[in-house]
Amino acid sequence: MARRVVVENTVLLIVRDPIDEPEARAILTEAGYQVLKSIVVRRVDPSCYLGRGKLREVKSVVDALGVSKLCVFDELRPRQVTCLMRELGVEVLDKVMVILEIFSRHAGSKEAKLQIELARLRHQLPLIRDWLRRAKLRELPGFLGAGEYAIDAYYRHVKSRIARIARELEELRARRALERAKRRESGMPHIAIAGYTNSGKTTLFNLLTNLRKPTGTELFTTMSPKTYAVKMCGRKIAFVDTVGFIRKIPLEIVEAFRAVLEEISSADAILLMLDASEDRELVLEKFDSSIRLLREVGAHGIPTIVVLNKIDVANGVEELVDAVTKVSSSYEMNVVDVVPISALKRINVDRLKESICRVVECL
Ligand code: GDP
Ligand code: MG
């Protein structure tokens, strides 16, 4: 059989509902993958996720495109993961694993990092248990067959690591207030750019900081890996490109998500971004759930500018500004302004900067 040519970091995406496809794609892109194709799977098979026919179709796409991974944007059972890997001969990522990859890019504090590692290990454990059982039964062929001894050793390693992290987190929680005070090392105001994935956070971050690509080397403070300081309003201000909010976040990683959101709750001001080009209903729904999330992580006292982005492709912007302004006053949030912009086409950015400066002056 001819060996397949595999292209690094490429994925074939599987979604249940076409509605989830753009978000899944954006999340994978942010995690550093290139999505070569996506396939919608409506009927799920309990033992292999894909039914017989779908499995053949996916197999031929995997081989033809040479993807390095299959991403199923859904919650998978261990035996489904094992079965897919065995049948398709590629590594399989599920929704939880992809989201955790993004979280780890945003985790600044020790606590957030541990919280994410804990979630990842806990997620892996049942899978390793499944492999161990199969290895004992000699059911694992080829590249899954690391051998019973190796899998068993790894299983025990993961279990003891989980126990250790859980202990460390207990200790850290007790010292949390202290850590937070230390993190304020620089004294300069930190402004978090928050909002759903794909609302344009990174585009605005790059625009405000004049960065083309916010990559590791130039990053600035220790608070978050995606923070960069610039001179604005006559002083230095740090902008933070925060982790995107995600719809329907799997329960098992909610705690890790909260820990990552501290990059927002410990900021001095928030730019809450919404994609104004989406349906009015959806924009308001996302606004509502963003505000609720911010309140949950204790960010409600923080001055917040709502940024309605993508006005270059949006209709009825004025009405939307009015609607968002009106709704804002009914929340116990500190919304200080609502500013329509286009980060991509650089429309109204000066107006946003003025608003930012007004907030910063009052800090
Ligand atoms: P993030 O996930 O919130 O960081 O969003 P990105 O900054 O990665 O942007 C998501 C997509 O929206 C990209 O394709 C951007 O080019 C696009 N985008 C961002 N801002 C604008 C805008 O003002 N207008 C339009 N038309 N597209 C935009
Ligand atoms: Mg981004």
What structural keywords apply?
single chain; 363 residues; alpha/beta; Rossmann fold; 6-stranded mixed beta sheet; 4-stranded parallel beta sheet; 48% helix; 18% strand; binds guanosine-5'-diphosphate; binds magnesium ion
State the total count of DSSP E strands: 10
Low-confidence stretches: 214-223
Percent range of helical residues: 40-55%
CATH superfamily of the largest domain: P-loop containing nucleotide triphosphate hydrolases
Order of H and E elements: EHEHEHEHHHHEHEEHHEHEHEH
Structural class: alpha/beta
CATH architecture of the largest domain: 3-Layer(aba) Sandwich
Distance between the termini: 66 Å
Outline type: globular
CATH class of the largest domain: Alpha Beta
Count of distinct structural domains: 3
Mean pLDDT: 88
Order of strands, widest sheet: 6-7-5-8-9-10
Number of helices: 13
Account of the protein in words:
The protein has helices at 21-30, 52-65, 78-88, 95-106, 110-136, 148-174, 176-183, 201-209, 254-260, 262-265, 280-296, 317-330, 349-361; strands at residues 7-15, 34-40, 67-72, 91-94, 190-195, 227-232, 235-241, 269-275, 304-309, 335-340. It has three domains: 9-98, 3-Layer(aba) Sandwich (Rossmann fold); 107-166, no CATH class; 188-361, 3-Layer(aba) Sandwich (Rossmann fold). The chain has 363 residues and is α/β, with parallel strands linked by helices. Strand 9 (304-309), helix 12 and strand 10 form a beta-alpha-beta unit. The longest helix has 27 residues, at 110-136. Helix 4 (95-106) runs antiparallel to helix 5 and helix 5 runs antiparallel to helix 6. It has 13 helices and ten strands. Helix content is 48%, strand content 18%. It has a six-stranded mixed β-sheet with strand order 6-7-5-8-9-10, with helices on both faces. The chain is globular and about 65 Å long.
